[in-house]
């Protein structure tokens, strides 16, 4: 272990990778007790925990709904129903102040009856009748689920219906008596990443072992999957083989299970709208004399796109969206007559509509709240076709809005241009009077300008004294957007803290190019960007290193772990949540192999050279002056292995550091399985931050 740097063969903490190992769990329980003893001493710990629980259980939350036929379904958690009620109502009732909810499934009653710690993981119903439903239940919040058929008319599990044991399953309805399913059926059925390697057709009333093989990938693939575009008069079935996190070989499944390759770039996403295919690009595409830039959304005749054997056979394509230096496509949805676009403009959401007319598409802006984050959900049921008489909701959509100081609102819109109607709005959980949001730009090491949001008191005195929490992610093309956080508001901003959110490369704030600038050999750019934002906060006089904390989870946990070791002089505290940290072994732990397109392959010497340069576990050495540190993770996280946080904490302690560590025994990658666990975790985290940075100076 020369110079404190460690090779894999020297790792004395591999035993902590045994998730349920007796010795490992004893270590976890001891660390949890030590951390609680420290963090619960904060005088506001109990008040914060109770306050978070009240917010999470509040009946004033906006019920998030999804349409299935005539019904709008919601999973509701509160103090009486910590695991949740799956319930439904009509749109007309939902529009009232007190909707009439009908309980479909009581998760708490089910968990009690079966002696299981069930966590809701979603449901898939078969259109257009939506009677047959596949409910997915997770033990303790893990990604792996059990699947059970449920009757939405009888509101009961189907005796003798489709059932699948716990696995990371991919399943979709083909018709009422057939599923296309990928799951763990024994040796060879999963990829190295732990996801399905095969798609099989499973007929009702037969054992899964007799399901017919439809499609098969390779062990080194990320996964294989199938999805079906149910539409009047037929269906389109697409199967794909994800060769890495961003690339897939895609096929249309034809009669007789014949596979027709789809001649589009492997990193393009395909969807359908009536007789058109919609193609969202992640890389530039030179096609028949036209260069379509990465981040574009294109439309063309679906039958011709699916039948093409190569670029030359593809039909003419038209652009619904092309990116600019400040604008990127966040998502899209369809109504009977239009395609609606969610666009980010300098990390603020805007909404637009595209409508086909003779000679091309007409695009118009839709007036929506700004600047903040938008969440679009169109209500049209594609399985009913484009006839508005057949589907009364064919031209309507739901739009969520929030920003750092504005509680969430849910609005109902119509494509005819009528003003948006506010259906629900969340109450304010903290006093935002006197607070303001600003967007600043830092300059990274290579000269790139990197935006960040700053939430603070108006007229903030730039004397470097303010406790500041800097949050970031920077990976997998995921954007960090404005969000109303009652946690930040009540436990941080209300007590004089400042919040900063960094929009660093590796994220999706400016489309695929912003992401691809910081992957693989260039991943260090994410860390340089984050450090640049920290430097800018200090240079502006917002804070100073002793009062600056950084926070990140998952890939963001890797971010703060790496930057902590590279630039420890910038920070006073680090909150590292469900992190990746041992990048020498990440591809061998749980789903880690699926992320090699983001980071690289540690088994390839050239790629390990750039990974090793930032991998926190390998770069830890004794004698550094490091910020105070809290790791949090979950025993039931079957996506990012808890061994990352366990081993890092253990190695730091062995080298003389004193990190705090807390591992929730449930929760999966979210870290908590119910509101009580979430409230407790938040209180521990904010207690740590205040203890590490000190209380804010009196105003």
From TrEMBL:
Peptidase S9 prolyl oligopeptidase catalytic domain mapped to chain residues: 488-695
> Does the keyword Protease belong to this entry?
yes
Which cellular components does GO assign to this protein? cytosol
Q: Does the keyword Glycoprotein apply?
A: no
- The segment(s) forming the Peptidase S9A N-terminal domain are 8-223
The UniProt entry's GO biological process terms, in alphabetical order, are: proteolysis
Annotated TM spans: none
Record GO terms (molecular function): oligopeptidase activity; serine-type endopeptidase activity
Q: One Pfam family this chain carries? A: Peptidase_S9
Q: Which UniProt keywords apply?
A: Hydrolase, Protease, Serine protease
PANTHER family hit by this protein: PROLYL ENDOPEPTIDASE
The molecule here is called Prolyl oligopeptidase
This protein's species is Pseudaquabacterium pictum
């Amino acid at each position: 272990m020369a110079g404190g740097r460690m090779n894999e063969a020297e790792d004395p903490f591999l035993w902590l990778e045994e998730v349920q190992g007796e010795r490992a769990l004893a270590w976890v329980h001891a660390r949890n007790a030590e951390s609680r003893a420290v963090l619960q001493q904060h005088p506001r710990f109990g008040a914060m925990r109770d306050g978070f629980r009240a917010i999470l259980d509040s009946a004033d939350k906006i019920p998030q709904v999804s349409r299935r036929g005539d019904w709008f379904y919601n999973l509701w958690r509160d103090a009486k129903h910590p695991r949740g009620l799956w319930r439904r109502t009509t749109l007309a009732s939902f529009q009232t102040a007190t909707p009439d909810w009908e309980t479909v499934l009581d998760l708490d009653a089910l968990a009690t009856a079966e002696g299981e710690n069930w966590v809701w993981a979603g449901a898939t119903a078969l259109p257009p009748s939506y009677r047959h439903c596949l409910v997915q239940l997770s033990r303790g919040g893990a990604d792996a689920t059990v699947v059970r058929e449920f009757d939405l008319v009888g509101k009961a599990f189907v005796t003798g219906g489709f059932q699948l044991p716990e696995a990371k399953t991919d399943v979709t309805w083909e018709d009422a008596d057939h599923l296309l399913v990928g799951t763990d059926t024994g040796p060879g059925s999963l990829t190295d990443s732990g996801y399905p390697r095969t798609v099989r057709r499973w007929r009702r009333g037969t054992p899964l072992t007799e399901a017919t093989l439809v499609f098969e990938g390779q062990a080194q693939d990320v996964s294989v999957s199938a999805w079906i575009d149910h539409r009047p008069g037929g269906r389109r079935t697409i199967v794909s083989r994800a060769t890495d996190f961003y690339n897939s070989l895609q096929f249309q499944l034809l009669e007789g299970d014949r596979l027709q390759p789809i001649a589009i770039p492997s990193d393009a996403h395909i969807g359908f709208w009536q007789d058109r295919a919609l193609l969202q690009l992640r890389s530039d595409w030179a096609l028949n004399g036209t260069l379509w830039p990465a981040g574009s959304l294109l439309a063309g005749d679906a039958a011709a796109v699916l039948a093409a054997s190569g670029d030359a056979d593809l039909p003419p394509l038209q652009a619904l969206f092309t990116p600019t230096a400040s604008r990127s496509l966040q998502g899209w949805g369809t109504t009977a007559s239009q395609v609606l676009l969610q666009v980010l403009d300098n990390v603020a959401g805007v909404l637009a509509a595209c409508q086909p007319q003779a000679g091309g598409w007409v695009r118009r802006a839709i007036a929506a709240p700004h600047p903040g984050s938008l969440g679009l959900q169109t209500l049209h049921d594609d399985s009913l076709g484009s006839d508005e008489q057949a589907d009364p909701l064919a031209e309507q959509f739901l739009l969520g809005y929030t920003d750092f100081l504005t509680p969430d609102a849910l609005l109902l819109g119509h494509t005819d241009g009528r003003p948006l109607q506010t259906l629900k709005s969340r109450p304010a959980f903290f006093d935002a009077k006197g607070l303001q949001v600003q967007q600043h730009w830092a300059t990274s090491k290579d000269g790139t300008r990197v935006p960040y949001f700053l939430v603070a008191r108006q007229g903030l005195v730039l004397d470097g004294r303010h406790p500041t929490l800097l949050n970031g992610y920077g990976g997998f093309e995921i954007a960090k957007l404005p969000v109303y956080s009652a946690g930040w508001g009540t436990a941080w901003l209300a007590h004089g803290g400042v919040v900063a959110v960094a929009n660093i490369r590796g994220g999706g704030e400016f489309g695929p190019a912003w992401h691809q600038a910081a992957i693989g050999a260039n991943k260090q750019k994410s860390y340089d960007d984050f450090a640049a934002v920290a430097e800018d906060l200090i240079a502006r006089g917002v804070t100073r290193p002793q009062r600056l904390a950084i926070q990140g989870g998952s890939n963001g946990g890797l971010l703060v772990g790496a930057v902590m070791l590279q630039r420890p002089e910038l920070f006073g505290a680090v909150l590292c949540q469900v992190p990746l940290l041992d990048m020498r072994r990440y591809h061998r732990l749980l789903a880690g192999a699926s992320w090699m397109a983001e980071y690289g392959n540690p088994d390839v010497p050239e790629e390990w050279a750039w990974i090793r340069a930032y991998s926190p576990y390998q770069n830890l050495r004794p004698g550094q002056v490091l910020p105070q540190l809290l790791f949090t993770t979950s025993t039931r996280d079957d996506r990012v292995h808890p061994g990352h946080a366990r081993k890092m904490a253990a190695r730091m302690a062995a080298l003389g550091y004193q990190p705090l560590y807390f591992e929730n025994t449930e929760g999966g990658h979210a870290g908590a399985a119910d509101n009580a666990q979430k409230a407790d975790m938040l209180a521990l985290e904010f207690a740590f931050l205040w203890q590490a940075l000190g209380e804010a100076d009196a105003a």
